[in-house]
Amino acid sequence: MPTLDIRGIPVAFPFTPYASQLVYMEKVILALETKQNALLESPTGTGKTLCLLCATLAWRIHRLKQLKAASKRTKVQYESIDGGGADDDDDKALRDKLPKIIYASRTHSQLKQVVKELKQTPYKPKVAILGSREHLCVHPEISSMRGTQQNHTCRQAVRAHKCTYKTGYDRQAKTKSAALPILDIEELVTTMKDREVCPFYLSRDMLVSADIVFMPYNYLVEPFVRNSLGVTLENAVLIFDEAHNVESVATDAASYSLSSLDVQGCIKEVEECHNLIVSGRIQPGEDTYLNSQSALTLKSLLLEIHTGLNTFPLNDRGGCTKPGAFIFEFFNQFNITFDTAPMVVTITEQVIEAMSDYAQSNPRNSKLDQLLTFLRTIYRDKENHQAMTKQYRVHIQEETVRQPGRMRNAYSSRPVTSTQRMFHYWCFHPGVAMHEIMDNKVHNIILTSGTLSPLETTVKELGISFPIQLENAHVIDASQVWVGVVGVGVTGKKLNASYESRNSPDYAAELGNTLVNITRLVPNGLLVFFPSYSILDQCTAQWQQVPRGSASGAVPIWERLAVLKPGIPGALGSRAASLLYF
């Protein structure tokens, strides 16, 4: 396995790299060394993921060696002055100074491929892969739940020591997580289920000591999700792979909606909590703000919001759009401001917690959770809220919604419908989310994809600077590519796959004989695409037969192809595409 010298850093690579891969890794290391953001475009198939992993992990190892050398020099100087023996900094203290690598892609499926690439490298870093309970829970009952119901049921089972997997984690995970091999999320779930250890809690334990952390985009760009997972961005290297999706993910992460039906659900939950407090079935602790009066006050506030939303004047099309700053004007009429919002949020949190503890046998998804997210988003940045709201629009819209599972009567198939008001707080600039990330004092951000051009427009959209940029060439040069149209076959007949001629035996025979000739010229593998499944099936069926009128001993086209390209001639069993692979 070759070791490359890139900007003075030894980088182990699984094979001899192409020139474009060297250029790419040089840009990655330059960005890491100078702590500058990088926007790196490299065509699909050029090995971006492998280059990213090898260059970043090599730089991190090199940086650790630099820290050790500096620590050793400091120790010698200290001892020469003091005359005593200062304690050595252990590896853990030095590793804590190293930037953690956070590698984000759009989905867990994409991250699975990244982990597969990592296993092909010589590097064996400590890895953590983050997921929600929906992805990681292995409890036979809780794993089938979703959302708030799943989260609260899990917490209740943990507090009551009724989850054997959490108990297994408490008993052995902290001593065994360091010995785990590199695993993708599916392997982590399977392995831990066999060991009766909770993958969800283990992944958070692994996060603390991990050299590289894998997670989907939304975990990284949504502050509340990130904070709930315990992800710290300070001094972290953030890598966004397949970054052509980042703009839409960033704007979605900074946008929120709340419906009048959501508010109505909140009112019911708070009313139920108030009644349970009055009846003594819920007894809030002395260290909380929750009591019968605060619950009643919250209910009254929600009723005002519900009325205000339902009576807000709309245009003839049933909607109304306002500047982003209007959101503070709207909630100010209910006395919700930057000064009062924290108390509203706190009491709402305590209602959710109290109801969760009470309803252990029948947990449910809470509408109050949606209200919390909405309020936290609006009132998260008092100092910069005026500038931030310029990137937002408020839109209130009346909509008709179906009532799931309900029909008008036993004789009607028409569903029951109702109207609701939607309060949208839409972000129109991905820079809002990107600036929030930068404010956490990250080491740097690397965005990479096969399609980022024009880079100038991408930079403007994201709203942060990217001093290091690359529009890389493909590893395949022009001499390796020929694009053309083969209009006729070996005997001069037209190769026309139109509806009129595609069923003709002559067409299939001409196409098959032409392919036979092509296989004689093309080295290695051959991939043939067809316009449709039906043409693929018709051709392959005919090629397996000896053509009519052929001389005695004639060999079917299918067999001739198999002789020239031994291996697996035939249609792909999965029928994932209309193609043949030889």
From TrEMBL:
GO terms for molecular function: 4 iron, 4 sulfur cluster binding; ATP binding; DNA binding; DNA helicase activity; DNA polymerase binding; hydrolase activity, acting on acid anhydrides, in phosphorus-containing anhydrides. InterPro entries: DinG/Rad3-like (IPR045028), Helic_SF1/SF2_ATP-bd_DinG/Rad3 (IPR014013), Helicase-like_DEXD_c2 (IPR006554), Helicase_ATP-bd (IPR014001), P-loop_NTPase (IPR027417), RAD3-like_helicase_DEAD (IPR010614), Rad3/Chl1-like (IPR013020), Rtel1_ARCH (IPR057498). One of its GO terms (biological process) is negative regulation of t-circle formation. GO terms for cellular component: nucleus. Gene3D superfamilies: P-loop containing nucleotide triphosphate hydrolases (3.40.50.300). The keyword Disulfide bond does not apply. Pfam families: ARCH_RTEL1 (PF23109), DEAD_2 (PF06733). Residues 7-306 form the Helicase ATP-binding domain. Keywords: 4Fe-4S, ATP-binding, DNA damage, DNA repair, DNA-binding, Hydrolase, Iron, Iron-sulfur, Metal-binding, Nucleotide-binding. SMART domains: DEXDc, DEXDc2. PANTHER family: DNA REPAIR DEAD HELICASE RAD3/XP-D SUBFAMILY MEMBER, REGULATOR OF TELOMERE ELONGATION HELICASE 1. This is Helicase ATP-binding domain-containing protein. It comes from Aphanomyces invadans.
